[in-house]
Design goal:
Mean pLDDT: 76
Number of strands: 4
Order of helices and strands: HHEHHHEEHHHHHHEHHHH
Radius of gyration: 61 Å
CATH architecture of the largest domain: 2-Layer Sandwich
Number of domains: 2
Structural class: mainly alpha
CATH class of the largest domain: Alpha Beta
């Protein structure tokens, strides 16, 4: 009880501080509550709708969570440019011409409220409100907000779908060019190594075996012809005959020459000049002509002793020897050609593993590029479908549940809340100031303070006895302070309202600063 009485006495002593604070703040709150103009709040409600086409049929390429989509729209809506444009075009704020751009943006943001809600297995909603002194202006501003929100959402989704489509188109185009370049490289490499390609290896190996067999056959035929020539010469030297009776019984040389010439003409009609058969026939014709010429000379001119002493081979034997030599020459040429072809085949067969490894590498690159190109084409098709979905507004979009409406009654200010809140705040502020002053004062004012601080017990307490003059001065000071509070506080508020800034505008600026509307 003593403590309560002590605190009451202290409060009464600090009443000259408590009352001015309470009176100033309370008076300002009441005046602001009364003088604030009515404000109309228009509201609209939006929802993020799911895609109209199921994702398992034709998915969209723009996939963002609904809450993130609303946040993007909100940030694009509340830009400085949008706020200034709407405020100036609709003349939203009073005294707009006297406000700088920063103040306009600050006031527009303070009057705008955007709130979103989402939960599991529930739709994602957005509420947008705007406060204005005029009901039609508030609804008009929300209409502009709605246009900007839908336009921004459509541009964002279509732009992202278009960027996705452009990306995959460029990727498919680049992969197609790489495939064409690599395909041309493979073709050029195959053309440069035509004789060493792996797919012709078996054919070339068969050719190699055939040529080797042909060379062996040529060697056997040459050996047989050389043996035949030596055998004919040996028989002639031993018996003086050509070794066969068929040569003696041959038709005349002229008939044989005519027959060879006829065969030569037939061969020229079928084969070229450089063919083996034509060359063989020409050699035989020339040799036969030389033999006939030599025979005619021996019959017309008598041989000398020296010439008659030399052994002369019979014409038939000479013809046989000439035929053998011609066959040997042809076989040797054919053998050289076969050997040249065999060397080329051996070189190409030895080069085939290197060509095969390089072709395998190129084919592997080509296969990888083909797979990438197929994936790019599939993604490009999906991107085109997604872009078409977004262009026709069949994907996830923001729809209107409650469009902006013109309010019929003012929604703000809550004058009772402002006045009551101001009075409560003034009382709390005054009590806090009194408490702060008492905590800052450390002197002892009660016997209990002496006991607690110095641990001594006082014998007696002598109260303060004031003189009549002191009592009069104290009462006069209190009355003066009360009169100053009663008269001065309203006068100060009136002066601020008249000479500095109207209280409603002052309150408006304060609410714009703190971003809270009452």
């Amino acid at each position: 009880m003593n403590d309560l009485k002590f605190y009451l006495i202290i409060f009464l002593r600090r009443l000259n501080i408590f009352l001015p604070v309470v009176m100033v703040i309370s008076a300002a709150s009441v005046i602001v509550a009364v003088s604030l103009p009515p404000a109309y709040v228009s509201e609209m409600q939006l929802v993020v709708e799911s895609p109209q086409i199921p994702d398992d049929l034709a998915p969209s390429t723009v996939r963002i969570p609904a809450l993130e989509q609303l946040e993007i729209v909100k940030q694009r809506l509340l830009t400085r440019a949008n706020m200034l444009d709407i405020a100036r075009r609709l003349n939203v704020l009073p005294d707009l011409d006297k406000m700088n751009p920063d103040a306009i943006v600050e006031a527009m943001l303070a009057r705008t409220s955007v709130r979103t809600t989402t939960s599991r297995d529930a739709a994602t909603l957005m509420w947008v409100t705007f406060e204005a002194p005029d009901a039609r202006v508030a609804a008009a501003v929300l209409g502009e907000y709605l246009t900007l929100i839908q336009q921004s959402d459509a541009e964002f989704r279509q732009g992202r779908a278009g960027e996705t489509l452009d990306f995959f188109e460029q990727q498919a185009r680049e992969l197609g060019l790489e495939i064409d370049t690599l395909n041309a490289g493979i073709l050029a490499y195959k053309n440069a190594n035509t004789g060493s390609l792996p797919e012709t290896l078996e054919f070339r190996m068969n050719q190699q075996s055939q040529l080797q067999a042909n060379i062996n056959a040529f060697d056997r035929d040459l050996t047989a012809l050389k043996d035949q020539k030596e055998r004919l010469l040996a028989i002639y030297e031993a018996t003086g005959a050509s070794g066969t009776t068929q040569q003696i019984q041959l038709s005349p040389e002229e008939q044989q020459l005519a027959q060879l010439q006829s065969e030569l003409r037939q061969a020229l009609s079928v084969f070229s000049e450089n063919s083996v058969k034509v060359r063989l026939l020409r050699v035989q014709v020339e040799q036969l002509e030389q033999a006939i010429a030599a025979t005619s000379l021996t019959t017309d001119v008598a041989p000398t002793d020296a010439e008659s002493a030399e052994p002369q081979l019979p014409v038939a034997l000479q013809i046989q020897m000439s035929e053998i030599d011609s066959k040997i020459f042809v076989l040797q040429e054919q053998k050289k050609t076969a050997q040249t072809q065999l060397e080329l085949l051996n070189a190409s067969i030895e080069k085939t593993p290197e060509v095969s490894i390089r072709l395998d590498d190129l084919e592997r690159q080509y296969s990888n590029l083909q797979q990438q190109y197929k994936q790019a084409q599939d993604r490009l098709a999906a991107a085109r479908t997604g872009e078409l979905i977004e262009t026709r507004s069949r994907g996830q979009e923001i729809s209107v549940i409650e469009p902006p409406a013109v309010p019929t009654e003012p929604t703000k200010p809550n004058r009772l809340l402002i006045a009551g809140g101001g009075v409560a705040f003034s009382i709390a502020t005054g009590l806090g100031l009194v408490l702060l002053l008492e905590l800052m004062k450390s002197s002892a004012r009660r016997p209990e303070d002496l006991v607690r601080r110095f641990n001594i017990m006082p014998i007696a307490t002598i109260p303060l006895v004031q003189t009549p003059r002191q009592v009069f001065v104290s009462r006069a000071r209190r009355i003066t302070i009360a009169l100053l509070i009663i008269v001065g506080v309203p006068a100060a508020v009136w002066a601020v309202h008249t000479f500095y800034l109207p209280l409603d505008l002052l309150a408006e600026k304060a609410m714009n600063k703190i971003g809270v509307r009452f």
